Amino acid sequence: MSATTRDVLRARGLGRSFGRRWALRDCDLDVPAGRVVGLVGPNGAGKSTLLNLATGMLTPTEGTVEVCGGRPAENPGQLAKVGYVAQDTPVYSGLSVADHLRLGARLNPGWDDALARERIRRLGLDPGQRAGRLSGGQRAQLALTLGIAKRPELLVLDEPVAALDPLARREFLQDLMEAVAEQELSVVLSSHLVSDVERTCDHVIVLVDSRVRVAGDLDDLVARHHRLTGPRRDPAGLPPHVRVITESHTERQTTLVVRADGPLHDPAWTVGPLGLEDIVLAYLARPAHAVRDTRPTLEVLR
Q1: Which of 209, 231, 266 is the last residue of a domain?
Q2: Segments forming the whole domain that contains residue 169
């Protein structure tokens, strides 16, 4: 399997088991380069396992994964291509901020010390302060600094703001977007907060039970998904370019969430817009058997 210039991360049949339990299985995924990609899904969907496989923290039980044109963590050069901020934004509590920067410089051949020190100065962090005495938001910013200053091709963030208060979360995401603009990074951001994904990302992947339910540019996803309401009727009569994601019926009314790859002309339906959160929730609510039925025609919008 060889990567294309369009994909910074590719997985085929990827799986990882822990004893008899599969944390991720039979996952096919394409992450386009040059984008800020939001990876969303419920707890247990396999998001963290996928990202740990992509960064080389775990090895696959089955299938393949390729990142930035190579196997994750296969050599120092490959390691240098990927920056990683884990869910608990790990730092060493007994080390000072300056110690972390020195450690980053020793471990990363492409380390940008001027960038790291300028970020620390701008954030108002005391270089002599021990990381264990920093606030949660400050620790997250220090971890982000370490990830950015290694000058990676791909920055992987596994729910880095999950434990932060709203102000710290906003500051972290604003700093992330500035770094993306300055360095032209590819980013994969895993989050269960769809509002953060909508604010930050331009491409979205919805992962449920290890399967990609839908993937595409955020603007295209919003433009092609609609809520249809009308008199109770069988949705089987919809045109072939309209795919039903979820449906509900009362005695008199039918409500559908659909993906439409063409115009909707039927006057019997009232067509309403959907936000990203509505779209994500619709795919999360889709019955499990629908995943199996639609797998050969994976819904990818590019």
Answers
A1: 209
A2: 7-209
Contact 60, 210 (CB under 8 A): no
In a shared domain, residues 59 and 163: yes
Same domain membership, residue 70 and residue 116 = yes
pLDDT at 3 over 80: no
Residue 162 has a pLDDT of: 82
- In what side-by-side order are the strands of the sheet with 270-273? 242-249, 253-260, 225-231, 270-273
Instruction: Please give the helix or strand (H or E) that residue 22 lies within, else none.
Output: strand 21-32
Beta strands in 88-224 (DSSP E): 154-158, 186-190, 203-208, 211-217
Q: Tokens 């060493």, residue?
A: 92
pLDDT, mean over the chain:
89
pLDDT at 274 over 50: yes
Instruction: List CB contacts of 102: < 8 A, sequence separation 6 or more.
Output: none
Residue 1 lies in a domain: no
- Our count of domains for the chain comes to 2
- How many CA atoms within 13 Å lie on the side-chain side of 153? 18
Question: Quick check: pTM over 0.85?
Answer: yes
